Amino acid sequence: MFTKTKNIDTAFRQVRLFTILVIAGSLLLCGFTLYKSYQLVSAMQGKVYILANGKALEAYASERKDNIEVEARDHVTTFHRYFFSLDPDDQVIEANLTRALYLADGSAKRQYDNLKESNYYSNIISGNVSQVIRMDSVQIDINQYPFYFRYYGTQEITRTSSVVSRSLVTEGYLRNVARSDHNPHGFLVERWKTLENKDLNIKNR
């Protein structure tokens, strides 16, 4: 009688232990499955597919702080390209300067107004002058805010009789603003001024 009771008690313990192990294993398996699913969803949300010329290109999303220096450098370069790339066409000049002024504050507008008052743009149109700018380097200090920058570039001014190369050095600060179609990087150039703009060489045509 006692042996039979002891056997039933042992069997009950074994069944209980087995049940506990099955439940614990199921919980571990569920937890592992949820964790891997979350990882997979996070990885998929970090991927972006871009359709270009009929081809799907894969891109990865990242935090802005990871690319802030690259975006700041491109913002400064884009601003200078629009501000200083001019052709003897008032519509081209107006379109480029409008794009440039979306990227900067009143300091750029003041420089534009000064050039306009001195008939700089009228002389470009009447003299059939083309002006392009080539970026040499851009220094960005992201350890302070607003971010200080210094731009080094070379202007090439093509006139009917000559081609003039001029050095251009400017400086200013970048402030964070909301991104938009006109300002995709979300920066605004502030306190912008020209430090150097002098002739390097002149070639006759």
Topology:
Layout: H1 2-45, E1 47-52, E2 55-60, H2 64-84, H3 90-102, H4 106-117, H5 120-126, E3 130-141, E4 147-158, E5 162-176, E6 187-204
Antiparallel strand pairs: 1-2, 3-4, 4-5, 5-6
Helix pairs in contact: 2-3
Summarize the structure.
With 205 residues, the chain is α+β, with helices and mostly antiparallel strands. It has five helices and six strands, in the order H-E-E-H-H-H-H-E-E-E-E.
Assign the structural class, choosing from mainly alpha, mainly beta, alpha/beta, alpha+beta, or little secondary structure.
Answer: alpha+beta
Strand order of the largest sheet: 3-4-5-6
- Give the CATH superfamily of the largest domain: VirB8 protein
Instruction: Catalogue the unreliable spans.
Output: none
- General shape: rod-shaped
Beta-strand content: 25-35%
User: What is the CATH T-level topology of the largest domain?
Assistant: Nuclear Transport Factor 2, Chain: A
Span between termini: 120 Å
The figure for the number of domains is: 2
Over all CA atoms, what is the radius of gyration?
32 Å
The major beta sheet can be summarized as: 4 strands, antiparallel
Along the chain, the helix and strand elements come as HEEHHHHEEEE
| Annotation, overall tally of beta strands | 6
**Share in helix:** 40-55%
Round the mean pLDDT to the nearest integer and report it: 84
Counting DSSP H or I runs of 4 or more residues, the number of helices is 5
**Known CATH architecture of the largest domain:** Roll
CATH class type of the largest domain: Alpha Beta
